[in-house]
């Protein structure tokens, strides 16, 4: 995963123009989801029948109404905190100090994330699944809200999930709540600080400005920032399984997990060989600089390919792994809908055939483009998903009960 594009985005396109209002957007999205097929490419009758569904692609914007910060909205991490830079995979792997800092911040931020719940947009997506219009969801989010809101509708978690950690040696998962308890045991002073933060109300407010006033910042990956905190004092455990049964290393020797008497990770004593990094627990998310596993990538591509249309909800597609999925859908002639507050990275690539300047002065030569635009279902609205999607579900339900 690369650091997302963080430059300013152009103002959002609105397609059709009536989608500028709530009613117009609901009507356009209802039509989009119900349209039998969105493909511009001629399909056989069989393929037409199979390919009528919409695949959902969601990003941080859909979880803002759950109280999580997003990256690029008005109160987003990149907007409010210009110096924010997430940890890179190689830093996490290589450096005990980086992991201390990461886990200290995560320890403080977890409660806020763990208390947050799916919002009406997630539940509306579940309803679209029940109505038979959506078979797959691909999400960039690591908050597990889709699984909680609609356990029966398949979700590909493109960037992993925070609900568990993975051991980099034995690949076993560890529940994040169990790990949180271990962190509290190993760090009584930090646990007390967390209690103070709770008492101050910094974790009760969903307003990022108010949180900052209380000396506390949170980011969408469950990371919290307390300026000046002594991160170097933080202690974190190693994988309990690898501690009991050290794994055999590639060279055939037995691995060694470096922990102190309490089971907290220690760096190798100075002068000794550097630790092999056995039993490192990592949040089960794709960090920057880490690649998406091949099976997850394939599952996401299959979810796109099996659908006739793609609807992006709450993503500015600033992350390339998400943008390329929409590009893939576009190249297949699929219908494209985007419901996102504010601009979207290079969205003119997807909607270009509808833009006036593309048609201007081309005479009759633009006939093909116009025809394609009409054959391909396109919707673009810049309104809150938690308000729009439940209304779309209501509209579809009332139209099909007539
Ligand atoms: Zn392990």
Automatic annotation (TrEMBL):
The active site is at residue 159. Residues 33-399 form the Deacetylase sirtuin-type domain. Keywords: Metal-binding, NAD, Transferase, Zinc. It comes from the Eukaryota. Pfam families: SIR2. GO terms for molecular function: metal ion binding; NAD+ binding; transferase activity. The keyword Metal-binding applies. Zn(2+) binds at residues 167, 170, 239, 242. Transmembrane segments: none annotated. Belongs to the sirtuin family. Class I subfamily. This is Deacetylase sirtuin-type domain-containing protein. It comes from Cladophialophora yegresii CBS 114405.
């Amino acid at each position: 995963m690369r650091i997302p594009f963080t430059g300013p985005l152009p103002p959002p396109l609105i397609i059709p123009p009536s989608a500028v209002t709530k009613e117009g957007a609901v009507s356009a999205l209802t039509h989009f989801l119900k349209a039998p097929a969105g493909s511009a490419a001629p399909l056989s009758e069989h393929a037409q029948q199979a390919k009528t569904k919409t695949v959902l692609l969601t990003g941080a914007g859909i979880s803002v109404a759950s109280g999580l910060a997003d990256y690029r909205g008005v109160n987003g991490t990149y907007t409010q905190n210009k110096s924010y830079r997430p940890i890179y995979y190689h830093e996490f792997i290589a450096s005990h100090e980086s992991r201390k800092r990461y886990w200290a911040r995560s320890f403080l931020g977890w409660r806020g994330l763990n208390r947050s719940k799916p919002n009406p947009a997630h539940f509306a997506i579940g309803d679209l699944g029940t109505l038979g219009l959506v078979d797959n969801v691909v999400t960039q989010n690591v908050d597990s809200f889709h699984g909680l809101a609609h356990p029966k509708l398949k979700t590909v978690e493109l960037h992993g999930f925070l609900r568990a950690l993975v051991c980099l040696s034995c690949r076993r998962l560890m529940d994040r709540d169990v790990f949180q308890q271990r962190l509290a045991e190993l760090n009584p002073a930090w646990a007390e600080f967390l209690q103070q933060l709770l008492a101050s109300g910094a974790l009760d407010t969903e307003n990022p400005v108010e949180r900052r006033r209380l000396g506390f910042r949170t980011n969408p990956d469950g990371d919290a920032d307390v300026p000046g905190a002594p991160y170097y004092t933080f202690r974190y455990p190693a994988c309990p399984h690898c501690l009991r049964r050290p794994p055999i290393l590639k060279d055939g020797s037995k691995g060694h997990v470096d922990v102190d008497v309490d089971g907290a990770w220690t760096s190798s004593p100075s002068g000794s060989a550097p630790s092999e990094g056995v039993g490192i627990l990592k949040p089960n998310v794709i960090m920057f600089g880490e690649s998406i596993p091949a099976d997850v990538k394939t599952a996401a591509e299959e979810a796109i390919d099996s659908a006739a249309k793609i609807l992006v909800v709450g993503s500015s597609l600033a992350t390339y792994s998400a943008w390329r999925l929409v590009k893939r859908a576009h190249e297949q002639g699929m219908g494209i809908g985007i419901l996102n507050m504010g601009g979207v990275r290079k969205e003119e690539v997807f909607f270009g055939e509808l833009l006036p300047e593309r048609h201007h002065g081309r005479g009759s030569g633009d006939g093909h483009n116009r025809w394609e635009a009409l054959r391909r279902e396109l919707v673009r609205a810049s309104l809150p998903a938690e308000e729009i999607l439940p209304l779309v579900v209501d509209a579809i339900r009332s139209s099909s009960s007539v």
